[in-house]
């Protein structure tokens, strides 16, 4: 799909993605879903390492890779060769954004660092994602989500409670959040470029992404000098706000203010708890949170999740089921919000992927297609960069570029 065929507020923006695994590709897919043309540049041998993140695979293609790279076009390029660097520069000649998440110093060793490229392409927005950022004592360290979750404080506040082993959040939240922060930074830098013509570097990291997710707990720690610990599904500032077991499963209750607290008691038929001084106001409920949970828990075990959710909705109490991923996929709200969509992959066939989580009234974005095979669009991308068929054949023959067909 060419730029002219793309829809969304970023239609006409060209992004060159030199990124692998997750954080950088998340940034690229967000920009792509909003209409930008994203050209994914992969290494000749094996491509993005996520291509080997299996199982599961569909017709030999990694499901994880296909999720993170849908909507992009792909070229496989030897950036260690002089001709490969020349190809990249021709791609950057009319590009607005470059995304890279290589280890510190890699782009500089290739002669493609920001200080070099800014002189050649002064309007380029150069987005760098890494484990710890481009400055500071840890700038040269490799970055992994698990390490970032541990060092950012996230693992200290995640888990069942005090005395239990440290636990990471289920998804790689620092990878994903770093990609989202990077996309936000790219958009802000692009606005500046539209006003001034000046590009700049956008620099964020998994470490900073993890720290960003600790807003509530950092507020508590900075105000009290005491680091909060894990609380299971409970909230550090409001109660009751956690998951409760029912007769056949689990539901979440968000009675986080006084109005909803009193509504909850009416639904439970436990109005007497309103007069208990331990639970009078949120401050009291937080001070006696475990006793509060113990007082509420027996009520929820008397009926099914569906029964309680119907009663709670009728009573105006925020609540919801605890769904697994397949149940989430089947939920009518997921479908109504187009958060699961179908694409046609060159090798894997018709398959489902996640949709765009931001909706636009005037310039709607969408998933613009499947993930590319390794080198699937190499020839078309080279043509657009001004190479003729003889030059393309020569680059392929010499291993500077790889092309793959289904």
UniProtKB/TrEMBL annotation:
Question: What are the protein's UniProt keywords?
Answer: Transferase
Identify the InterPro entries for this entry: CoA-transferase_III_domain, CoA-Trfase_fam_III, CoA-Trfase_III_dom3_sf, CoA-Trfase_III_dom_1_sf
Q: Which Pfam families match?
A: CoA_transf_3
GO terms for MF = CoA-transferase activity
Its name, as the record gives it, is L-carnitine dehydratase/bile acid-inducible protein F
**What does the organism's lineage look like at the top?**
Bacteria, Pseudomonadati, Pseudomonadota, Alphaproteobacteria, Hyphomicrobiales
